[in-house]
């Protein structure tokens, strides 16, 4: 963005509250939006997230800690390692000392998390408002202080974040505060994951006394490999005169970034001491003030961040932080609340299941926090965190994108625009392998789209190629939902065309069997990593080829006749004897116990929804359930939604509801803030993939709706889980028109779907 235009944009963002109506206070206090931690959660506290799709940070129990922070697609490219999100200097810390320890200064952020020290403790993540509020009575060696901390990452002005610390001392005296930017040390050890085999990786971890196990309460289970990347600070300084801090830096072998903070003091309060503190790991503004018993003092810290391609340098960030301080914390907060309130105009409301309502809101909150409108950035499987090293999988196209498409189409558009933007990298990959068209990576870098699969998972990068069909299907789904032919011609069609060329060149003709086959693929059941004719892959490839023919007609281009030829004769494994599909070619023994042990329910997943008769659909489901029940592996939250949706397509409300319910348990939701994990026993958190899956169970599964060329069609009868009275999709967007869609019980007790045009 050009500098002048960026300044105008931010002035408009800071002024937006002047045009805002009142925020709905009732919605902001709706228990369906509120997640609360109390003292009993301190020992098992799993951090939540504050983010706006451009920048993110984690929560922490005190509300004042220095927490890891990230910028969208800001990657570390250390030699020999895979690309990974570079942690930018943490901006959230405000430390506090009463100066009353017998040993000298004792700081709040070093105090043990004990209910005896943090009395009357309560922290609330307000999903509707996107705010974290922490309250407690802090007891420091006989001196008590009432603490309230309110933090936000602005949804209205995306470069900004802020924290307000209010202290009410129960004593007269002097206290100290430290407003810091935390300069993280380079992560050690660094592993050369671009060349280590699986065995070598295990040896390297053992040599460093590391394990692939979670450490309670909140360390990711694979933190030994999914560590954050490094940001190198090149200049850092502060000014006591205007109470600001600023720095410039860059990711390891990567992009430039900048950060600045402006500190606001209570009106009329004059520090008795004020200085800038600098060390290798900390840049801070430290101050000492005199306080009176029973008086409340509110301090605020305004932070601005930017990175190459999104904003400017530290000078401009400093100006933005100072402008936010001048406007005031309440101004920034009100604009932020208004922006979140507008987002929640599109919502899912459930009548009859308060637990499901709260979980749906938390899943929507994390999806909205980790995506941004009108960009070309994707969604990582674990959002803006180091989980899966921030890489982009089919999760972005098939799990997150459809969940956003009808409720938040501008955010969904960003995800498909990422594939358009990185099409040249995918074309180069295909060409390097002697294939036509484009071959998108299994693990893509969110900035440049390059292949980033670790060497130990090399076969996934080369063989789990259904991602290419997933990409094309998402492009077409966006066109069908938006009706935007210009977008299709300019962005969607080149991707769809190149994917079709890829499949046409990747499939081979088996003359003896009179069919096309796709050999040497990794199945969706990844334990089967070199099989012919994986059913989900072949069915998805066939749909992508047929989409290319349809898209060609829309944009007025003659399709390659070979696309239709391959699609019509591509083998889809099926047991004629038993009347159901198989997971892969008949020649492959289905004898590995991988959880779920089948991908057949995914054939009913909304974006694919493979056509079949009612009898075959029932036989597929029964066969799949038999395979699932025989497995002894732990559940994976990614596999729960396809089963629920497949059951809904059969009209089986009880089974669909039961599998939906499994997605609401604390086994896959970490307290206190409903952080979704990949499995019941690991700490691979912020798993947006499963969040998107759960939402799709409602949006498409329980409604029976599918996005087709005729619009949003009723492909299956709606279902309601037995305890539910109704649920409503609010402010659904389709081709420029808006609807409320309700599934409720009719007079005869059967579910009915009602559309109301807005």
UniProtKB/TrEMBL annotation:
<dbReference type="InterPro" id="IPR012341">
    <property type="entry name" value="6hp_glycosidase-like_sf"/>
</dbReference>
<dbReference type="InterPro" id="IPR008928">
    <property type="entry name" value="6-hairpin_glycosidase_sf"/>
</dbReference>
<feature type="domain" description="Glycoside hydrolase family 65 N-terminal">
    <location>
        <begin position="86"/>
        <end position="305"/>
    </location>
</feature>
<dbReference type="InterPro" id="IPR037018">
    <property type="entry name" value="GH65_N"/>
</dbReference>
<dbReference type="InterPro" id="IPR005195">
    <property type="entry name" value="Glyco_hydro_65_M"/>
</dbReference>
<dbReference type="Pfam" id="PF03632">
    <property type="entry name" value="Glyco_hydro_65m"/>
</dbReference>
<keyword id="KW-0378">Hydrolase</keyword>
<dbReference type="Pfam" id="PF03636">
    <property type="entry name" value="Glyco_hydro_65N"/>
</dbReference>
<dbReference type="GO" id="GO:0016787">
    <property type="term" value="F:hydrolase activity"/>
</dbReference>
<dbReference type="InterPro" id="IPR005196">
    <property type="entry name" value="Glyco_hydro_65_N"/>
</dbReference>
<feature type="signal peptide">
    <location>
        <begin position="1"/>
        <end position="27"/>
    </location>
</feature>
<dbReference type="InterPro" id="IPR011013">
    <property type="entry name" value="Gal_mutarotase_sf_dom"/>
</dbReference>
<protein>
    <submittedName>
        <fullName>Glycoside hydrolase family 65 protein</fullName>
    </submittedName>
</protein>
<keyword id="KW-0732">Signal</keyword>
<feature type="domain" description="Glycoside hydrolase family 65 central catalytic">
    <location>
        <begin position="364"/>
        <end position="591"/>
    </location>
</feature>
């Amino acid at each position: 963005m050009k500098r002048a235009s960026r300044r105008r944009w931010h002035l408009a963002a800071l002024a937006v509250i002047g045009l805002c109506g009142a925020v709905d206070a009732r919605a902001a206090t709706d228990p369906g939006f509120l997640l609360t931690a109390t003292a009993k959660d301190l020992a098992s506290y799993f951090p939540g997230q504050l983010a706006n799709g451009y920048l993110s940070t984690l929560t922490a129990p005190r509300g004042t800690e220095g927490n890891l922070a990230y910028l969208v697609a800001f990657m570390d490219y250390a030699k020999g390692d895979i690309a990974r999100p570079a942690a930018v200097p943490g901006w959230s810390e405000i430390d506090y000392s009463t100066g009353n320890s017998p040993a000298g200064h004792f700081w709040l952020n070093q105090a043990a998390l004990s209910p005896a020290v943090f009395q009357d403790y309560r922290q609330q993540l307000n999903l509707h408002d996107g705010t974290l509020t922490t309250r407690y009575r802090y007891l420091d060696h006989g001196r008590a202080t009432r603490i309230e901390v309110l933090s936000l990452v602005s949804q209205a002005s995306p470069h900004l974040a802020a924290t307000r610390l209010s202290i009410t001392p129960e004593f007269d005296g002097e206290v100290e505060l430290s407003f810091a930017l935390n300069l993280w040390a380079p992560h050690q050890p660094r592993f050369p994951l671009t060349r280590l085999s699986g065995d070598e990786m295990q040896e390297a971890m053992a040599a460093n006394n590391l394990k692939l196990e979670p450490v309670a309460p909140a360390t990711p289970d694979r933190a030994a490999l999914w560590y954050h990347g490094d940001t190198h600070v090149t200049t850092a300084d502060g000014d006591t005169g205007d109470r600001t801090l600023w720095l410039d830096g860059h990711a390891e072998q990567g992009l430039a970034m900048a950060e600045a903070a402006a500190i606001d003091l209570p009106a009329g309060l004059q520090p008795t001491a004020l200085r800038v503190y600098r060390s290798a790991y900390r840049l801070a503004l430290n101050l000492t003030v005199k306080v009176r018993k029973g008086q409340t003092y509110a301090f605020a810290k305004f932070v601005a961040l930017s990175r190459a391609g999104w904003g400017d340098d530290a000078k401009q960030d400093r100006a933005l932080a100072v402008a936010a301080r001048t406007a005031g914390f309440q101004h920034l907060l009100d604009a932020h609340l208004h922006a979140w309130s507008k987002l929640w105009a599109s919502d899912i409301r459930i009548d009859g299941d308060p637990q499901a309502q709260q979980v749906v809101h938390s899943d929507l909150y994390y999806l909205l926090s980790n995506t941004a409108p009108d960009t070309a950035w994707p969604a990582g499987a674990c959002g803006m965190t180091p989980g899966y090293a921030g890489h982009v999988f089919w999760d972005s196209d098939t799990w997150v994108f459809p969940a956003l498409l009808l409720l938040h189409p501008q955010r969904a558009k960003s995800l498909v625009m990422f594939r358009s933007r990185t099409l040249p990298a995918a074309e180069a990959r295909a060409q390097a392998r002697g294939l036509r068209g484009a071959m998108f990576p299994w693990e893509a870098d969110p900035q440049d789209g390059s292949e980033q699969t670790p060497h130990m998972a090399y076969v996934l990068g080369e063989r789990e190629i259904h991602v290419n069909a997933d990409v094309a299907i998402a492009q077409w789904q966006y066109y069908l939902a938006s009706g935007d032919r210009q977008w299709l011609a300019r962005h969607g069609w080149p991707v769809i065309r190149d994917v079709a060329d890829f499949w046409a060149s990747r499939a081979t003709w088996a003359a003896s069997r009179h069919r096309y086959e796709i050999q040497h693929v990794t199945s969706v059941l990844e334990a089967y990593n070199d099989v012919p004719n994986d059913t989900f892959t072949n069915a998805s490839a066939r749909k992508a080829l047929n989409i290319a023919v349809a898209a060609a007609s829309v944009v007025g281009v003659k399709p390659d006749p070979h696309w239709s030829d391959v699609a019509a004769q591509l083998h889809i494994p099926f047991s004629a004897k038993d009347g159901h599909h198989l997971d892969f070619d008949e020649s492959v023994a289905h004898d590995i116990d991988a959880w779920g042990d089948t991908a057949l329910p995914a054939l009913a997943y909304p974006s694919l929804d493979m056509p079949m008769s009612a009898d075959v659909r029932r036989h597929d489901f029964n066969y799949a359930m038999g395979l699932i029940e025989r497995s002894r592996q732990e559940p994976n939250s990614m596999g729960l939604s396809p089963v629920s949706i497949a059951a809904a397509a059969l009209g089986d409300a009880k089974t669909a509801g039961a599998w939906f319910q499994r997605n609401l348990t604390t086994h896959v939701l970490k307290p206190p803030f409903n952080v979704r994990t990949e499995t019941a026993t690991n700490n691979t958190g912020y798993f947006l993939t499963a969040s998107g899956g759960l939402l799709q169970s409602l949006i498409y599964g329980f409604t029976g709706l599918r996005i087709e060329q005729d619009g949003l069609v009723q492909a299956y009868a709606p279902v309601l889980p037995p305890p539910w009275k109704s649920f409503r999709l609010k402010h659904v967007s389709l081709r420029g028109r808006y609807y409320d869609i309700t599934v409720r019980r009719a007079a005869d007790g059967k579910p009915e779907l009602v559309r109301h045009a807005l």
